[in-house]
Structure prediction request, 347 residues.
Amino acid sequence: MTNQMKPSRSFASDNNAGVHPRIMAALLAANRDHVIAYGDDPCTARAIRLFRRHLGRDADVYFVFGGTGANVLGLKAATASHQAVVCARTAHINVDECGAPENFAGCKLIGIPSGNGKITVDQIKHVLPAAGDEHQVQPRVISVSQATEMGTVYTPAELKALARYAHAHGMLLHVDGARIANAAASLNVQLRAITRNAGVDVLSFGGAKNGMMYGEAVVFFDQTIARDFKYTRKQGMQLPSKMRFISAQFEALLSNDLWRRNAAHANRMAQRLARELARLPRITITQPVEANGVFALVPKECVPLLQKQSFFYVWNEDTSEVRFMTSFDTTRKDIADFVCLVRTIVK
Prediction:
């Protein structure tokens, strides 16, 4: 009989983590009897009420299967095909969605270089196409990731500045909130402080990276944009028939501060990992650790040896910058074991 090594915990992605026990229990509890499909069920109604408690009574909430679907359909509702979305060049919509926003929403993405994943009003001013020029796409949406792909976080003041600029120029502010809970936990604010109260118009609210099995929400704070979204969601193949199994997860996540506890723990583990790695002479932390991502320069020859034991992704091949992600279930032992491995290999 061949001995098989037990797979170790990795720092590749918070998507790799399992499901939080309370959310798994909620799924099992929802798996009883029959209910009306497509969201006309008590569990979905309760989940939407919870969203509105956190984000405001005027929040319009639609559940979808995944993050790309949430981003693409949210942008589709906000744009026409002759319009453009301005985002960081590193944004998930620009790099990791296989051209889906441009294919399905039909709009053009304009990526702005950003060393820390964040974009500012001053940067946006210099790249916007000329409004009213029929030969150019027309600016319609500023899209930001919260937390960013570089593990940094927009403050409420930074979001408000982007929203004011957008609204003053007939534009909207979209937030890819795949890690919105990590951002709120990092800033020690309520969810509405970095969404509705900051002037956000459209939000993709993430669940899968914070302890859920699957499922995201598209949240509109400007209900005129959401007017036809139920048709957009169906046409976009993101209408879950057994919606209660997404709703039940969000009901658990948004109850008793589970969303915050999961995210805050992941953030603390990232900070701990960064502190330990920063003590090693050949490791350099490259970004502020504000959420649950740690970016570091690791000697190129050591990367494959480390990945064999505990997988992670290389962010920049040229500089040998790598990304380590922590999760709600990352433990101190996971970090201690990994740091010991790094200390052994990176000499």
Remarks:
- The chain is about 40% helix and 15% strand.
- The first strand starts at residue 60 and ends at 64.
- Confidence is low (pLDDT under 50) at residues 1-7.
- The longest helix spans residues 258-278.
